[in-house]
Design brief:
It is built from eleven helices and eleven strands. With 321 residues, it is α/β, with parallel strands linked by helices. The chain folds into two domains: 183 residues, 3-Layer(aba) Sandwich (Rossmann fold); 114 residues, Phosphofructokinase domain (Rossmann fold). The chain starts with a strand and ends with a helix. Bound molecules: 6-O-phosphono-beta-D-fructofuranose.
Length: 321
């Protein structure tokens, strides 16, 4: 293998640049050239490639977002789109590909590998942490800490005004961020898609907490829970008459300089991806489980489900006493 490509795809996540850097420097150290693919699969279809040497990724390990740019690309979901993309890769001599992204990006990578025999390795980059086969995904740790800082600030206002705050955090289908920040932020309740608590039950929890003498509380809602934070706030206000407020943290959770943990994880995974391609391993995601690098078939990352910890769910409930 003389030349490989690297791209970032789907939602950006802090630490993606650290992963790109690790791919470029590991490959360069092994005498392999790297081409960056701009704007994910959209740039691949358009042939938007840029040569990346060791110096081109200097000063990027601490930067949020992705220097390669990213996109969610509909044409790549079609046979024709992938055919065109594979031709573009081959026309510039790219013989293997590292795809940094979430499950949507991995679907695309898997089909590229199956339909065109193209060597592909995935690196999990998403703040949602919802990919099977790895303890953590790149960006998750930073997102949790960003959300937690915001929650601590909102708590000041909640306490001062003796108010109930409903705070919505990201997580389209998963409650990993919500559960972690719920425990670390001392929330009254954590509402996640994996444990569909009914709105009536939530209202009961709010009533019980007021009866215990609590004058201010925070409820964390994952965006994937029922109708999200606004629906929860409306249900509580209607049933209790409380002057509750809702705060949707949104994309602030995706930005910012990656934490040390995310930089290290991204470096380990980017390195692992190049090593895997060189060993002829393809159609896998690089995971890190108990600090060890593992190879997980790409298909398993979305067909198998990573569950939130039952122990943490129980802990969140108990400590909300
Ligand atoms: O998958 C990461 C994520 O941040 C989800 O938590 C969220 O639902 C989604 O991306 C938002 O995507 P967009 O940036 O396209 O609005």
């Amino acid at each position: 293998m003389k030349r490989i490509g690297v791209l970032t795809s789907g939602g950006d996540a802090p630490g993606m640049n650290a992963a790109v850097r690790a791919v470029v420097r590991t490959a360069t150290a092994r005498g392999i050239e790297v081409m960056g693919v701009k704007r994910g699969y959209a740039g691949m279809i358009d042939g938007d490639f840029v040569k990346l040497g060791a110096r081109d990724v200097a000063n990027t390990i601490q930067r949020g977002g992705t220097i390669l740019l990213t996109a969610r690309c509909k044409p790549f979901m079609t046979l024709e789109g992938r055919e065109r993309a594979a031709k573009q890769l081959r026309s510039v001599g790219i013989e293997g590909l590292v795809v940094i992204g979430g499950d949507g990006s991995f679907h695309g990578a898997h089909f590229l590998s199956v339909e065109h025999g193209f060597p592909v390795v995935g690196v999990p980059g998403t703040i949602d942490n919802d990919l099977f086969g790895t303890d953590y995904t790149i960006g998750y740790d930073t997102a949790v800490n960003t959300a937690l800082q915001a929650i601590d600030r909102i708590r000041d206002t909640a306490a001062s005004h003796e108010r109930l705050f409903i705070i919505e955090v990201m997580g389209r289908h998963a409650g990993f961020i919500a559960l972690d920040v719920g425990i670390a932020g001392g929330a009254e309740d954590v509402l996640i898609p994996e444990r569909p608590e009914t709105l009536d039950e939530v209202v009961e929890i709010v009533r019980a907490s007021a009866a215990k003498g609590k004058t201010s509380s925070i409820i964390i809602v994952a965006e994937g829970y029922e109708g999200g934070g606004i629906k929860v706030m409306e249900a509580i206000s209607k049933a209790t008459g409380l002057d509750a407020r809702v705060s949707i943290l949104g994309h602030v959770q995706r930005g910012g300089s990656p934490s040390a943990r995310d930089r290290i994880l991204a470096s380990q995974m980017g390195y692992g991806a190049v090593e895997a391609l060189l060993k002829g391993i393809s159609d896998v995601m690089i995971g890190v489980v108990h600090d060890k690098t593992v190879h997980v078939p790409l298909e398993e990352t979305w067909t198998k489900r990573k569950d939130v910890s039952l122990e943490l769910r129980e802990l969140a409930k108990t400590l909300a006493l």
